[in-house]
Amino acid sequence: MVYRCGLLTAQKEPVPLKSVEVQLEVRDHVATVVSTLNYENKEDKPLEAVFVFPLPGDAAVCHFSATVGQTQIVAEVKEKQKAREDYDDALSSGQQAFLLEESEQSPDIFSLSVGSLPPGESASIRLEYVIELNVQADSGLRFCLPAVLNPRYQPQGSRDGGSGNIQVTSCPSSLVPYTLSFSAQVSSPRPVSRIESNCSLDPLQYLNSEQTKATIKLAAGHKFDRDVELLIYYKDAHQPTAVVEAGQASAGLGTLMGDPVVMLSLYPEFPEAVMSSVATCGEFVFLLDRSGSMDAPVNHTNRNETRISSARDTLLLLLKSLPMGCYFNIYSFGSSFESIFPKSVEYSQGTMEEALKKVGEMEANLGGTEILKPLEHIFSQPCIPSQPRQLFVFTDGEVGNTKQVIDLVKKNSHAHRCFSFGIGEGASSALINGLAKEGGGHAQFISGSDRMQPKVMQSLRYALYPAVMDISVTWDLPKDVYATVLSPPITSLFQGQRSLIYAGLTGQISEAAEGCVTVKYSLAGHPSQNQLQFNLKPTEDSGLTLHRLASRALIRCLEMEDREPRQQQDESVKKKVVELSVQSGVSSAFTAFIAVNKGNGEAIQGPLVRRNVPAPRMMACGMPAFQSARGKSKMEILVGVFLCYILSF
């Protein structure tokens, strides 16, 4: 009998990933996340470990490095195919290599390949990203460290090809063989009043008497078997701010990374007279996910509450709160879709009761997650005159064609607003946030019943407000100072919700220089405006955080432009994305991080062996493939943070 030491999979194979360490630094509403993954090869053969894991869909991944022994190798950003070839060449010649790439179908999924880890060798992988934190209904800032990557369903006949069900290597969540340590430091101009979490925390510790700096960490013994959610509350709520960040001296003036960047955080205040006249009309179309995955638990704490029951409760609360005289209909979907009424009907006591009864009977029994077809059908229906269409989508986001779905919503955004609800842990942030952003609505994440009601009522309140029209932004800057907006145009504004603008600044800026931004818009026919005055002096020791967030915003705009249908193939937009990604060091759909350890030039001997990391046990379904560095098709289905890797040749 052979005895093996260390952590083992269910198949008695050693697990190369031992632990995950996460350090979070929050400055006001911007977060920097540093994750360190520690690997160890306790076998007698060199290993290649491949992990697929979730990140927030709007994160800007800006650093990737590996430490092997005393050697640190910092990765560089290259065009994706070139990075894959370099990785493949390195492994073929017996060198160590590390590859990090974003899924081409969903920006919230990444693949990390650790190649040629010799017997007895340890390696630490450092991954860094920056992200803006969203404001919640109760004014808290939400940070979510994704742990759960639910299998993504690949629709039949989609442009990326389909796949059948795949067996997932898994284990009970209590036996996930890698640990997590997590700590956070929070600082703000305003005092930190409290920090809450869905996980057990050690007591909050303040670092100064003003209570503007504080630290928190997870209680000992936490297993990385659930999303880690933090809700950060500041005193005096949120105020409009402007932060100017100095450019990188080595980049040179006239470039995005070399020039100063300003981030404006706007919290529009609408005139009271307009706000008091909330609309009592509208066509409310509800789209409920009834695919098989919705039968999974909404979170790991309460396994008796399923995603479908949470979605039902959310929808029932909305139905009971609609204004009399509006119109509504309810669609549900899986492999097919159906609706309660043939077309939208007027909301009355009778139609409400009929809808409540049918919604209460809905189960997660409609198969796969085919969301495109019901959306196409809804958008094909004629709008009702004087009844603005408001689309509410409830889903766990387990789709493999995320970008197709978002593109369809954007294409039809002139005729509706989209309010999205991500149900359960692991809901795709790329899909949920993308639907709301491109649909001019608002996104919410429901991972339990404790905060459901305020979130639901906030979205309904936003839907009842008239849409803000004719939004424009004007800049009043000193002579010979110019602003180039880097973020997409603002398409929606909501009372008290933050809107962000990134812009590059060029010209001679004196220390005492002041600027002013004016946002003009029309609300229910009433012209309104909000102004923000700010100092143009750059902040000290910013670490290029704003430059990277601005680069990410511009990269996402260009990627969406690249997906627009054209008469002829045009590679110019893709070329711009690659150039910007390489210049800024921020990942994109067309680039990847690659690091090669050339070491002492000696080749690593022996056949390369792959090892899988077991994941928390959940439902399996089809998932889109990453293209491997060797050009073969790999179907990867993982549930967990750095999860189980399935290879199908």
In short:
This protein has 649 residues and is α+β, with helices and mostly antiparallel strands. It is 18% helix and 34% strand.
What does this structure look like?
This is von Willebrand factor A domain-containing protein 5A-like isoform X5. Residues 283-468 form the VWFA domain. It comes from Xyrichtys novacula. InterPro entries: VIT, VWF_A, vWFA_dom_sf. Residues 1-131 form the VIT domain. The protein has 649 residues and is α+β, with helices and mostly antiparallel strands. Helices cover 18% and strands 34% of the residues. The chain contains ten helices and 36 strands. The strands form eight sheets. The protein has an eight-stranded mixed β-sheet. Helix 3 packs across helix 8 and helix 6 packs parallel to helix 7. The protein is globular. 47% of the residues are buried. Mean pLDDT is 83; it is low at 1-11, 159-172 and 613-649.
Structural class: alpha+beta
Tell me the quaternary state: single chain
Task: Look at the structure and give the mean pLDDT.
Answer: 83
Largest sheet: 8 strands, mixed
Q: What does the radius of gyration come to?
A: 25 Å
Low-confidence stretches: 1-11, 159-172, 613-649
Strand order of the largest sheet: 5-4-9-2-1-13-16-15
Distance between the termini: 32 Å
E-strand count: 36
| Helical residues, percent | 10-25%
Q: Total helix count?
A: 10
